Please model this.
Amino acid sequence: MRWQDVPCREWSGATTERGYGARRYKGQTWLAHRAEWDKKMGAVPEGIQVLHRCDNRPCREIRHLFLGTVQDNMQDMVAKGRQARGEKNGHAILTAAQVIEMRARKAAGGVTQRALAAEYGVSEQAVCDVIKRRRWAHV
Model:
């Protein structure tokens, strides 16, 4: 049976600020999915995380969980398109529309990176990175 054929078993108790289930286990507060792994599969090795295949933070269905490193978790996030890109990034100053406009104006000529930087309120390096697609490459 594939994990996708098994419904999530969501924790219905307390949750963390980030939406993970939180419960008392072994005299301490644990993330519910991590406690579930410990109960059913054994101790999680040091430096390893319990990850969700389903991307449902309160889920504690053992078939939806797997072990991995921080890097595995980041690769899973990127593979599933869950990373904060562009305007979803809380630090973004530009919008996708501004990036498209900036690239078009630079390609048409007659405007410097310095002028674009001043107009859009970013550094000249940021403009350079946008134009060369080192930033906002997905747009």
